[in-house]
Design brief:
13 helices; single chain; globular; six-stranded parallel sheet; 34% helix; Rossmann fold; 3 domains; pyruvate-formate lyase- activating enzyme; alpha/beta
């Protein structure tokens, strides 16, 4: 290709994708590319995709059409989970020049050097079983928080999920490397690191130099707590069966790991959990929540929930909502089930009509709103430590000249911009 020198990125999906996009961006900037906003004219547009839901697939196609209208002569590169799962489908989208699967994502610079506009769409993919390496990534933008990828892939076989097909087997970094990265980020002014992964609690699995690793996620938590200068850590999401008592008890006494857990549930009905092939039941989940709240009453607990999955009868849905209602949690991330190709869920009956899925989504989201209001109200008048971001938000975001931050237990705080607060941890009375 000729020498295009500007690139714009767009990320769909999870925090892990954001960390990988940020790493790709830095790679290209080191090669002399100028980074542009995705709404600006650029020589190259890179879309890092998700494929957890059908909406993510649709959004990718919509973004390509927007690029075609804005900059029809620019190069369009699609990578990420959707690119790994359905490369041929993406290649048929008018305007797409390059599709990079899981093994080729971080070879973007090399692939761009051999790209010519007008050629047939180039697909660089592979059998996901051959993807075994781990590529460390982290996000650093204008925020004080960094998403640090420490694990990738998943060995679970949940019936609704395509992630193992898109990301491959569970694998992770070494603790020594993660500690070094955290220290480097600390020297660059980062005050909070969010540990991310596809199945974070599975950290340590795999081989290193032909030998089986003997590290665990709990080992990682202890090492970061004891060996780094980062003042705040968060655990992005961890399966309830992998969230051990020792992890919970360590966080409770830690001054660095925040009292904030995000624990996927997916359903409060044991019958539906069994259909999903989840590795726990509602009793185990309740026990985890109860232990957290017993030793950390102020802790924030977020929950992932899928509504309308195959086999979820009205009775099972009510059972799930009743279970969630009784839990001492702070918020829900609600997902409406969507069919994913090659998943076992396609064989489960009965199928829940789309209209009923949408109704159940509204019910669950309303419950989430009530939970968050109640959790926040419990802490009004209390003083908690808030880390304010280093960026002043525009009027279009959270108000003219406002700073945003989060308490240790993840309550959002906004205040008029004050330069002394930027990237600082402040004792703050919630009002």
């Amino acid at each position: 290709m000729s020498q295009p020198r500007s690139v714009a990125f767009h990320t769909l999906g999870c925090k892990l994708n954001f960390s990988e996009t940020s790493t790709l961006s830095r790679q290209l900037e080191q090669e002399g590319f100028e980074k542009k906003a995705f709404t600006e004219m650029a020589d190259i547009y890179v879309i890092n995709t998700c494929s957890v839901t059908e909406n993510a697939d649709k959004e990718c196609r919509q973004l390509v059409r927007k690029i075609q209208r804005l900059a029809p002569e620019s190069f369009v590169v699609i990578t990420g989970c959707y690119a790994q799962l359905k490369p041929a489908e993406i290649a048929n989208i008018p305007g797409v020049d390059l599709v990079l699967g899981a093994a080729e994502k971080f070879n973007l610079v090399e692939h761009l050097a051999n790209l010519t506009k007008g050629d047939a769409t180039k697909i660089c993919s592979c059998d996901i079983e051959t993807v075994t390496g781990f590529k460390a990534s982290f996000s650093v933008n204008d925020r004080t928080r960094t998403f640090l990828k420490v694990q990738d892939g998943c060995d679970y076989s949940c019936t609704f999920c395509t992630i193992p097909m898109a990301r491959g087997k569970s694998r992770s970094d070494r603790i020594e490397n993660v500690v070094q990265q955290a220290q480097a980020l600390s020297k660059n002014g980062v005050k909070e690191i969010v540990l991310t992964g596809i199945n974070l609690g599975d950290f340590g699995k795999g081989e290193d130099g032909g030998k089986k690793k003997e590290e665990s996620f709990f080992d990682l938590v202890k090492a970061l707590d004891e060996q780094t200068d980062i003042p705040r850590y968060r655990i992005s999401s961890i399966e309830p069966n992998l969230l051990t008592n020792e992890i919970i008890e360590w966080v409770a006494k830690s001054h660095k790991f925040m009292p904030h857990f995000h624990i996927p549930l997916q359903s409060g009905s044991d019958a539906v959990l069994k259909l999903m092939q989840r590795r726990y039941n509602s009793e185990l989940y309740r026990d985890r929540v109860n232990l957290i709240k017993k030793i950390m009453p102020h802790a924030c607990i977020g929950v992932d929930v899928i509504v309308g999955s195959p086999g979820e009868t009205e009775a099972y849905f009510k059972e799930s909502i009743d279970f969630l209602h009784a839990l001492d949690i702070a918020y829900l991330h609600v997902f409406t089930y969507s069919e994913r190709a090659a998943t076992k869920a396609l064989d489960i009956k009965p199928i829940v009509p789309i209209s009923i899925r949408q109704e159940r989504n509204k019910i669950a989201r309303n419950l989430s709103y009530q939970k968050l209001q109640y959790f926040t109200a419990q802490h009004l008048g209390s003083t908690r430590k808030v880390l304010f971001e280093s960026v002043k938000h525009s009027k279009d975001e959270i108000g003219d000249g406002m700073l945003e931050g989060y308490t240790d237990n993840y309550i959002r705080v906004t205040t008029p911009f004050h330069p002394a607060y930027s990237n600082q941890i402040i004792d703050w009375t919630l009002a």
